[in-house]
Each structure stands twice: as structure tokens, then as C-alpha cells.
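Title: Prediction job returns without error message
Component: structure pipeline
Severity: low
Priority: P3
Assignee: unassigned

Description:
Job completed but the reporter wants confirmation the result is attached to the right record. Sequence as submitted:
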Amino acid sequence: MKAVRLTEVGKPLRLENLPTPRIGPEEVLVRVQAAGICHSDVLYRAGISKASPLPMTLGHEIAGVAEEIGADVKDIAKGARVCVHYMATCGRCAYCRAGHEQFCATGRMIGKQWDGGYAEFARIPARSLFLLPDEIPFVQGAVMMCSSATSLHALRKARLQRGESAAIFGFGGLGFSAVQLAKALGAGDVFAVDINAVKLRLAAGLGAIPIDAGQGDPAEQIREATHGRGADVALELIGKPETMDAAVRCLGRFGRVALVGLSRQSFAVAPYENVINKEAEIIGASDHLASEIPLLLEWARTGKLQIPAAVTRVIELDAEPVNETLDGLENGTNYVRTVIKP
């Protein structure tokens, strides 16, 4: 089979021909129909976040068809449409039993520590699979498995309540889902913060209030738009010190900011002015939970969560377009999500 793989940190991904994976009794061979390209994959290629062992087939946003079924798999039939929860977990450790499987003691992330979906086939633990309703296209099913799921988890961690305002910093792969999910959860005003005019127009089309960070301090713009009150909830989806700082400063009293964007950089916080005097909260949000996926699938099935054609593009399974996409994500692009269709 064909697979696009990370073979060396800091180098372009390479197209390789590999044997079709052999599955174990609790696994399913998935014929990949769509694999999203996430900004995290840029970090793996650069070595900022470590993918191991190498070579590794990247791709943690996967949807496809069950091609072969392991002997002990009971709930997935051959030919079923499926999407992949990207955590391969044990289901037995204290974290898994508590429903926090992203911290599984022996867990591995598919597409980072377990060969992923930049391939014609992927070997997937059956416990990581969800049935994909017929109403949801494979492209949307794939992208939902990271961008939408992680956004929902962050909004839940930030405890967004009906009628509250939300500020989404970064209208990219996660941001387009976060805007829609905040609306689905009953948010009042939803602000989308970015510097890309094309993306801000797309955000406005989804009902968000665009905030152009290139035209001035976004925290001050949000304060002005809320008549000085500030946002109730903020999601920081970029991972830059300046956007993390602005996301904290835009909060009103009792506001909560969830930090999601991956970064090794730190930022300074004025504790009295921006946290203590508001009783504000800074919250970490890591990955997402299997228990959150059924709600996402239902919202996608009923149209509450959509992936407009304007925010996606489709490429073939080959090294050149994949590397070009990763370069674009590294340097800035108008596309919100790019999906490989083998």
C-alpha cells in the first residue's frame, strides 16, 4: 500500500510502498477514505513535538471503511463506515476508568506514536472506532476527529454556559468548529479573532463577530464590543505568547480561558489585574474524550456542525501535496483544513 511517512525530523515526508498492515484480534483494518492534515503534523515534522518511533505514518484525523475485522471484535462489521478516535488506550488504568483516557498510562496517539491515516489502510484498535452515520461525508467525519472534538472538549473544560459570550482566538482547523460548537451550546456573542481577512469573512458567515487582530489589540476590541464587560469564555487555539496574553486579558469577571494551542513558549500574566481581581481562571485543555464523540456525530448528522466547502480542500495521497500543505500551515494559509483522499 502507499503511505506518506515522516522518516527524519526536519525533512519532507516521503511516499513509501509498504505491506498492508496485519491486524490483531481486537483491531480493525480501515480502508482510509479521508485523512485530515492538522497543524500538529507540522510540529511533528519539525520536531517541536516528538513523533516516535520513526519512520511514522502521520495522520490522526481518519475516516474510512472497515475492511477486515479482528476475531474478538463484536461491534464493528465488515464494510461499516467508521471514524477514528485518535487515542489507542488500554481501557483499564485509573485514567481510562475515570474517563480521562487522554492520560492513559500506556496510551499511544494514532498518527504520532502509532501509524496513522496518511495511507491507503490503517490498523486501528476497535475500541478507538465509532460508526459514522450515512449523513456525514467521510471528509467531515475525518476532520471532526481532531478539530471538532478538541474544540468541544475545550469548551466543556471552560464550562461555557447558555447565553455567555465566547472569544475564539484562531479561526483555523479548530476555530471553525469552535465557533459552531459554541453556538450549539447556546453561547450568546461569539467572537472570532484572526489576522487573515479571508478567514474572518468565513467566521462571519458562521455567525461569529470578526475581530481583526491586525487592526489593534484584540482584547481591547472585545472589551469595546461587550461594553467593557469582557468575554465569559476564551479559547486560545494558536499557542503564541501574544495570543495567550490577549485571551487572558479579554476575560471579564469570573471568565475562563482554555489554552489549547501547542507551544513551548511562555507568556507573562499580571496576576492581580487579570486573574485575582476578576476571579478568572486559566485552564489547560488536552486532546478530547471518547465520551464526547457521540454528541459531535449527532450534531453533524443533524446539521448543527458543518464543514462548508469553502473551508476545505482535498488532495491526493502523495508526498508533494502533503508537504506543500504542511508548509502552508507553517507559513499561513487561507485554507482552514486540507484532507487527503487516497
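Comment from assignee: result matches the submitted record. The radius of gyration is 20 Å.
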